[in-house]
Design the sequence.
């Protein structure tokens, strides 16, 4: 079945394309695309008139948690996929911190199979970096990679021991595996529940100092350089961490940095009167840090923006701030968050889209995330300026713990394609 | 300000903290507390203002003095009082704060007095219940009735609050008393200087209204009208925040020598319970400048006033 999507605004950060045009899809891949007004393709069995909407590659999310297996009441691969597609995410890497932990071949295969069977989005398993994520014994990195694990991570709680981290990265490098780690010196950050500073002190909340991120990042990039391992620094929240990455890259280390979309939108003051939906780790930082992250995004210093989707049911959030779980639902708000920054004049559309398309595609070596001949036809049609009010009850995610609840956003996905098939339509 | 109080009404539904109160609110509570304190001293019983009302004390943290103080205050006003030492009840069986609150709320109390180890605990509770919530200490956040009783004690001893120099010394970082009292004193025009080991001084104390926050107690003391010592949690020694009790006392303990540089008529305060010989010398704690037992006395008066305003006004 061949389809043409015409009368669109083609946006492809990979080639810097931002022009009117259309795309011709056959057998699930992009056969042809052309820019210009009035573009059409012969042989198309079906024509979709985009009506001037933006047509871009579907988003690739390097970090989403679900509750499958073990905590399906939080989220399943199927519900996460539905939420993702409605937010324009067509490929998602799911984290290994489930029950049980995804730390062996059978579980990696389980995730991959459940993804194929129950989800319309492309689901990529991330493997546990250490057995049980306990930070002690190395997991079967090579075998899990063969089974389809695209990267390896210890999830929310990074490996504490520098020795274990060095050994694991040394081994991962030899297998060509990618390691993703959240820069966090736990002995410094431990016990904290929000960004350390005046606001935390005034509210009597234990702080997570930014130095903990710098120290964690410094350790991990040094090890990446020494071992030759490809490293993704997961959810950076400050310019100084990006500086650390920059120095390491200059010395030849293969290091990438990601930022959680919500860190581009909220600052520590949004915690307000102990709002647990704003309790995330890494925490929302000072406004100045948020601004520098946006500037870094504009400069291309951030390789990927992630959803950091972490579904938490009410019983984990209806607690005093200090006792509530960390985590925010994020799959449905990554693109609207970025598009709101575009509407506010902070970013161009291409700058906003690069770190959620070609950026993560390049890190993982995936063929999608671009509008190119032969690339999978994972595409989204979105209205870049459409204003809407985020209401958590309207979210498709099984857990509704979104800090965006009640916020006005601009930009909305109208239709999502995976492999040329329409998998979501608003 | 006195003229303005004539048509003033206390409009707050809860007392969650000093933050959010207006100086007139504080003045009003202090004035009412004064009448209760005077009445008690004169051996009079206040009228049964809270007759038929139910006050529930919900203490998730162990406390003897604050709990008894609230109990006595509520009983003096004729309320039915139920004190729930939650530390060893259903909450330990996994029931959450909100569940406990909603259960109690269904029994229609008129006021809930809550102490909880989590900052924001009282605020969370207030969102879920229909009755008045009085914060009796939430984590390291606020302890408003303590601040009010401190102010009442100061006002009764000094005749005023405005313009006084108050030095608060100790573990500022973990003290809800320091936060609430600093804010309240600042609102009422006192000049507050905080003092303690650098590891126990949090950032942003100027936003609470403190004029300074330093590590040199001796430099802070000259000219002080009020010296308030905070309780040092002895477990701080284990977290490498402090070297030893001995060293702490050397730099931050209140001794007669130190106190000599404060004003001649300076008073000494402590929210209790005291660690004698750690933050305060016994001779000072029991000396003539100490108003520590008076603080306890004023605690009951302040809580009578607060319960009167919050539990009494409800239909």
Sequence:
């Amino acid at each position: 079945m061949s389809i043409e999507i015409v009368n669109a605004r083609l946006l492809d950060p990979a080639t810097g394309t931002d022009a009117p045009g259309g795309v011709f899809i056959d057998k699930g891949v992009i056969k042809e695309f052309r820019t210009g007004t009035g573009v059409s393709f012969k042989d198309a069995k079906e024509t979709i008139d985009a009506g001037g909407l933006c047509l871009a590659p579907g988003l690739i999310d390097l970090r989403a948690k679900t509750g499958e297996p073990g905590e399906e009441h939080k989220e399943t691969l199927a519900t996460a996929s539905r939420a993702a597609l409605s937010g324009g995410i067509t490929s998602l890497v799911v984290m290994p911190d489930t029950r049980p932990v995804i730390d062996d071949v059978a579980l990696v295969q389980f995730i991959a199979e459940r993804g194929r069977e129950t989800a319309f989005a492309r689901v990529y398993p991330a493997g546990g970096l250490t057995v049980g994520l306990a930070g002690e014994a190395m997991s079967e990195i090579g075998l899990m990679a063969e089974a389809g694990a695209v990267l390896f991570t210890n999830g929310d709680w990074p490996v504490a021991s520098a020795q274990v981290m060095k050994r694991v990265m040394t081994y991962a490098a030899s297998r060509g595996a990618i390691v993703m780690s959240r820069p966090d010196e736990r002995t410094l950050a431990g016990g904290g529940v929000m960004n350390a500073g005046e606001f935390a002190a005034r509210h009597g909340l234990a702080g997570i100092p930014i130095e903990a991120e710098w120290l964690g990042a410094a350790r991990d990039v040094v090890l990446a350089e020494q071992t030759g391992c490809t490293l993704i620094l997961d959810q950076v929240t400050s310019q100084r961490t990006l500086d650390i990455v920059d120095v390491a890259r200059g010395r030849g280390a293969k290091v990438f940095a990601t930022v959680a979309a919500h860190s581009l939108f909220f600052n520590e003051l949004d915690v307000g009167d102990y709002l647990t939906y704003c309790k995330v780790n890494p925490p929302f930082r000072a406004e100045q840090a948020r601004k520098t992250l946006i500037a870094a995004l504009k400069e291309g210093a951030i390789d990927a923006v992630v959803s950091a989707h972490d579904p938490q049911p009410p019983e984990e959030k209806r607690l005093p701030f200090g006792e509530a779980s960390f985590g925010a639902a994020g799959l449905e708000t990554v693109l609207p968050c970025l598009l709101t920054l575009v509407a506010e004049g902070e970013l161009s559309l291409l700058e906003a889209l690069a770190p959620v398309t070609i950026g993560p595609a390049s890190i993982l070596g995936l063929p999608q995330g671009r509008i190119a001949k032969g690339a999978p036809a994972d595409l989204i049609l979105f209205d870049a300026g459409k204003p809407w009010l985020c209401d958590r009850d309207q979210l498709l995610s099984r857990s509704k713990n979104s800090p965006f609840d009640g916020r006005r956003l601009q930009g909305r996905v109208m239709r999502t394609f995976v492999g040329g098939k329409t998998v979501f339509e608003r | 300000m006195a003229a303005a109080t004539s048509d003033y009404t206390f409009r707050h539904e809860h007392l969650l903290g000093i933050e959010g109160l207006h100086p007139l609110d504080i003045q009003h509570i202090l004035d009412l507390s004064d009448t209760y304190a005077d009445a008690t001293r004169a051996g009079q019983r206040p009228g049964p203002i809270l007759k038929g009302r139910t006050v529930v004390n919900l203490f998730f943290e162990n406390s003897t003095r604050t709990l008894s103080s609230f109990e006595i205050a509520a009983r003096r006003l004729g309320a039915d009082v139920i004190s729930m030492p939650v530390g060893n009840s259903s909450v330990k069986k996994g029931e959450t704060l909100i569940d406990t609150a909603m259960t109690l709320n269904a029994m229609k109390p008129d006021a809930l007095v809550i102490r909880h180890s989590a900052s924001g605990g009282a605020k969370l509770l207030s969102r879920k219940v229909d009755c008045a919530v009085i914060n009796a200490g939430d984590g390291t956040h606020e302890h408003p009735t303590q601040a009010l009783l401190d102010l009442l004690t100061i006002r009764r001893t000094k005749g005023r609050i405005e313009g006084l120099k108050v030095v608060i010394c100790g573990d500022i970082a973990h003290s809800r008393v320091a936060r609430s009292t600093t804010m309240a004193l600042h609102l009422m025009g006192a000049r507050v200087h905080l003092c303690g080991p650098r590891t126990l001084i949090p950032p942003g104390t100027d936003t609470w209204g403190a004029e300074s926050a330093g590590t040199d107690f001796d430099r802070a003391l000259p000219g002080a009208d009020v010296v308030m010592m905070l309780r040092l949690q002895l477990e701080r020694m284990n977290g490498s925040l402090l070297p030893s009790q001995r060293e702490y006392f050397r730099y931050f303990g209140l001794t007669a020598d130190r106190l000599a540089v404060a004003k001649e008529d300076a008073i000494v305060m402590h929210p209790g319970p005291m660690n004698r010989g750690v933050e305060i010398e016994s001779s000072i704690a029991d000396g003539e400048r100490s108003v520590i037992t008076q603080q306890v006395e004023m605690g009951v008066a302040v809580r009578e006033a607060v319960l009167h305003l919050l539990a009494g006004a409800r239909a």
Q: What stands out?
A: The CA atoms of residues 167 and 220 of chain B lie 7 Å apart.
